[in-house]
Design a protein that fits this description.
Layout (H helix, E strand, L loop, with lengths): L4 E7 L4 E4 L5 E14 L6 E13 H10 L5 E9 L8 E4 L5 E14 L8 E3 L7 E2 L11
Parallel strand pairs: 4-7
Antiparallel strand pairs: 1-3, 1-5, 2-3, 3-4, 5-7, 6-7, 7-8, 8-9
C-alpha cells in the first residue's frame, strides 16, 4: 500500500523546532491552502481554507526552521497521519464555538516557493546544504 499527498499553501505561523530524546530534530508548522470559486446558485464568490499541521524530521526540520516563517509559500509532499482516536482529521473547537479540523502531514520533502529573489528553493534531504535565500512577503499572505 502507498499513500502520498502534495499541498501548496502559506505558513500560518512561524515553525517550531524541538529535539526528540535521541537527538532527532522535528519542526512543526501550520499550512493554509485556499480555494476560490463562484457559487453557481448565487453567483457570489466563495472561499474555502483548509488547514494542515506539518511535521518535518531530521535535516529537513533544521532547514525548515531556519528558512521558513509565517506567510511563506511552500509545497509539502508527504503522507497523511490520521488522528489515533478518530482515524480521521484532528478536530478542535474554535473560540467562536464552531468545530474545525486539522489534517496532519508527515513531510517527505518540502519546496520553498518563489523566485530566488523571493527566497524560493527546495530541500529534499539528500544533501547537506539548502540552495536559496529566505524571504517573507506580507503582501502574499492570504489571511
Amino acid at each position: 500500500m502507498y499513500q502520498k499527498i502534495i499541498v501548496v499553501g502559506n505558513l500560518g505561523s512561524d515553525p517550531e523546532m524541538r529535539y526528540m530524546p535521541d537527538g532527532t530534530a522535528v519542526t512543526n508548522f501550520s499550512l493554509a491552502t485556499n480555494r476560490r470559486w463562484t457559487d453557481g446558485a448565487t453567483g457570489q464568490p466563495r472561499d474555502e481554507t483548509t488547514w494542515f499541521r506539518v511535521s518535518v524530521w531530521r535535516k529537513q526540520a533544521e532547514v525548515a526552521n531556519q528558512y521558513l516563517s509565517k506567510g511563506r509559500k511552500v509545497l509539502v509532499e508527504g503522507r497523511l497521519r490520521p488522528d489515533p482516536v478518530s482515524g480521521g482529521p484532528r478536530t478542535f473547537t474554535r473560540q467562536d464555538g464552531t468545530v474545525g479540523a486539522s489534517y496532519e502531514i508527515t513531510a517527505d520533502s518540502i519546496q520553498f516557493l518563489g523566485g530566488r529573489e523571493e527566497g524560493g528553493g527546495s530541500y529534499e534531504g539528500g544533501g547537506d546544504e539548502y540552495q536559496g535565500a529566505p524571504a517573507a512577503e506580507e503582501d502574499d499572505i492570504p489571511f
